Every structure is written in structure tokens, then in C-alpha cells.
Amino acid sequence: xxxxxxxxxxxxxxxxxxxxxxxxxxxxxxxxxxxxxxxxxxxxxxxxxxxxxxxxxxxxxxxxxxxxxxxxxxxxxxxxxxxxxxxxxxxxxxxxxxxxxxxxxxxxxxxxxxxxxxxxxxxxxxxxxxxxxxxxxxxxxxxxxxxxxxxxxxxxxxxxxxxxxxxxxxxxxxxxxx
Length: 178
Fold this sequence. Notes:
Layout: H1 2-21, H2 28-51, H3 71-84, H4 99-117, H5 128-160, H6 171-177
Helix pairs in contact: 1-2, 2-3, 3-5, 5-6
């Protein structure tokens, strides 16, 4: 099982790296899909690390602090908009959607450094508002982003219904995936 997890995590990390690097060619949709794959790959890697007790070792690299669930709703929302709205363009303000995830990542890095190197015993999950925003809110935000994407996909279907027949209706599902 451990071998499967490390191989799956490695493949996911490579896939996410390839998708994210396509931003150099202005393929924004791939960037957001790559971020989603990256988070899931880091979660698989964390599962592997828990099994081998990686977290208990000294001098480790805390890769799990980069796995913020708050990245997924923003990336999913922008991925959906880019694939259902031809006129949608990415601007700098869209990257503000990632600000909560950035705050979470830097906070967790700070706490890890304080706990590991300064002997502190901080636990962010003991703070109820932190737990709510990092563990409870993301699944609901993901659901909200999926609902928005489905509404956009339905609107796209209505706009293109005159151009496609009933038989080709399911091809629009591919639009959201590609």
C-alpha cells in the first residue's frame, strides 16, 4: 500500500508540475487544474508520510503545509469560468481568491518553524475560527464552485443549443473537463 501511495503521489506531483508550467504559454485553465491536482497529490503524499511516521522524524521538510484546501474552491471556480465563458479573462484581481490559502500556508509555516526550532507548542487547530475556515468552510466552498460551474455549463448549453443537435448534447460535458 505504501508503494502505491508514493507512486500515485509522485505521478500526481509530476502531472501538476506539467499543468502548472503551461502558464508560460498562457494556458490559465491548465494552471488551475494543476493546482487542484497538486493539492490532491500532496494529500496522498501526506497519507504515505503518516504510514511511515515521517512526521515524527527530526529535520524533516514540512510539505503538508502547502496543501491548503482553500486553493481548491478558487481554482475550481476559475477553471469553470475559463471553460464555460469564452469572454472570461484572468486579471490580477482573480488571484485575490487565493489570498486565504496564502495566509493559511504562511501561518502554518510560521507555526511549524516556531514549534520545531523554538520549542513552542502552537496548535492552530485548537483555535475554533481557524478550524472552521481551514477545515469546515472549504468543502462548502467547493460545492458552491461546482454549482456555479454547473450553472455556467447549463447556460453555455442553452446558448449553443441552436448549433448542436440533441445527439451531441453530451459533448458539452467535455467542455468543462478539457
